[in-house]
Structure formats: C-alpha cells, structure tokens
Amino acid sequence: MTDIRTLGEFIVEKQSDFPHASGELSSLLGSIKLAAKIVNREINKAGLVDITGAVGENNIQGEEQQKLDVYANDKFKAALEARDQVCGIASEEEDEAVAFHKPLNLNAKYVVLMDPLDGSSNIDVNVSVGTIFSIYRRVSPVGSPPTKEDFLQTGNQQVAAGYVIYGSSTMLVYTTGNGVHGFTYDPSLGSFCLSHENMTIPQDGVIYSINEGNYIRFPTGVKQYIKYCQEAVPEEKRPYTSRYIGSLVADFHRNLLKGGIYLYPSTASYPNGKLRLLYECNPMAFIIEQAGGKATNGFQRILDIPPTELHQRVPFFVGSTNMVEKVEGFLREYPDE
Ligand code: P6P
C-alpha cells in the first residue's frame, strides 16, 4: 500500500474540518485541480507550439495579453462553470465580473476570483508562472445572478485560497483556514500528491524580494529597509540576500519554504502599488497568515482592507512576520508627506 495521498483524497478527508461541509467546496476545489492540470500541460508545451505569443490585445491592466493568459482564463472559467458550485467569477483577464447563467449555477453558493496566469510575461523565457485563486461564499441570495457585493468582500471573508506554481515541478498549494497544504503534480499518475502538509513560514528570514529598479521612487521607509538589509553587520557576515524572480507566485513560494519577504511598494509607475488586492494580495495574505506569516500594505492588514473596485491595486508586503514588521517599523519611522 503506497502512502501517496492525492489532493482529491485529502480534500475529502479534510472536508469535516470545514463548517457546513456539504461537499460543494470539495467539488469546487476539484474543478480548480482539473483546470490546473490542463493549463500545466499547455505551459509545458509552450515552447513547442505557437501559443506563447501575444494575441495582440491588452487586458484592463493595459498589459499585452499572452495567448496562455487567455487560454488559462478560459480553462479555469469553463471548469468552474461546469461543476455548478460557482455562480460567477472575477479575473485579471476579465474587465467585469462574469456571471454564470445555467440554473444550477444561479443556485450555487460560491464565487471565485483569480489571476489565471500571473507572471505570464515570463512564459517566453521559461521562468515559473502561477495561477492564484480566492473563494468566497456569495452574499447575494441564491437563485439570482451574483452582484458586485459578492466580489467586493473583504479578504477576511475568504473560505479558501490557493495557488498553482508551474515551475521545475508543478505544485498546488491551498488553505481552507485549517493550515496550508502543498501537492506536487505527478504526470505519470495524473495526480497532485501531498508533498508538503501543514506548511509554515519561518518567523524570520534572510531573503528579500523587490524590484530595486524602482528604487528612486520607493517610500523612504522602504529605502531604509533595503539599506538595513544591505548594511554590513560587523559581527556577522552579510546576513541578507536579494532574490527577485519577477513572478509573485515563484517568489512567494520560495519565501514560504525558506523564510523571506516580498515587497511591492508604491512606485513611480504604480503609485498605489502594482499588485491587485482581490485576486493576488488577498489569497496570498490568507495563505501566509495560515502559515504563520504576515501580509500588510505597510500600515494595515491586507485581509482587513475593504475593497472598492474589482481591479484595485495596493502596496504589498508579505512573508516572515519579523521581516514584515521590520518594514512596517521603518515606514512609521520615516513617513513620506
Ligand atoms: P515588475 C507579474 O506581472 C507581477 O504581477 C508579479 O507576478 C511580479 O512579482 C510583479 O508583477 C513583477 O513586476 O514591475 O517588478 O516587473
């Protein structure tokens, strides 16, 4: 008897941890698992088929849409609609929220917000990319289409969140509020197998991830933090190291395993930060808190920020608690007018 525990088995096993578990959330997570396998297959072929070029269109972010962006969005959307647990989705690749209209979907309890392929500009250079998802119970009455309020819920209302990292191996990491669990895809089995149960992030770390090319317009507190990391510490060899992949999921995942902090503060190009609150920061914040870490906008817990619009951006500091609190200290000590 092997000790392999697949994602499907684990979800069902843990179903009793989830209040009012009726199997619907388990089935919803199963649809995400299916779409992840399909997207993983295409990403692995990306270098071989003409699917990595831009489609010549821009998404609402003004970013050139890569074919795989669109492909991933379509596959996750279709998988979520097919399983009848979701009444609608919001996505980085969709200007507006998308309501599902089949009768079974109208009676569904959940909405899903996602970045179907984060870091997609890295695809053509074979750098890891990821899918990020966030799940809420709808607040509007079942039997009707979802409303804006269903999608603009505060992050602390999430019932589940997770990401898929398409890297040297493909992993799915998720939480339903009972710890963080990681599953590694085994293509020979076609299954995600439990590889990292109860993931926790070290309280401290030596890795900081930030695009220092934006340094000139960083908040003073962030500049002070970088200086703190780089200062030679006489009694110690240089304790910190800078690691920035340019793909949130990849930087986040490494820091979750090893300890570290990812910083995307306000910059000249992104005065409110670049990352989106609803489908990047909130899910990653839920995961990191469940793993014992911290996520703020520099002054406020990410999960407590009330959303105002679907694609809003926030400054984002996420990772080992001691490191995030160090940055918060510098931001308080060196306030910018
Ligand atoms: P920059 C990818 O577009 C992304 O949203 C994150 O995955 C990544 O960490 C960040 O933006 C990279 O942004 O401005 O450093 O290229």
UniProtKB/TrEMBL annotation:
InterPro entries: FBPase_C_dom, FBPase_class-1, FBPase_N, FBPtase, Fructose_bisphosphatase_AS
TM annotation in the entry: none
Binding site for Mg(2+) 1: 92, 115, 117
Catalytic activity, EC: 3.1.3.11
Amino acids binding substrate: 118-121, 211, 244, 262-264, 274
Cofactor: Mg(2+)
Domain Fructose-1-6-bisphosphatase class 1 C-terminal: 201-330
Assigned keywords, A-Z: Carbohydrate metabolism, Cytoplasm, Hydrolase, Magnesium, Metal-binding
Family, as annotated: Belongs to the FBPase class 1 family.
Subunit structure: Homotetramer.
Name of this chain's protein: Fructose-1,6-bisphosphatase class 1
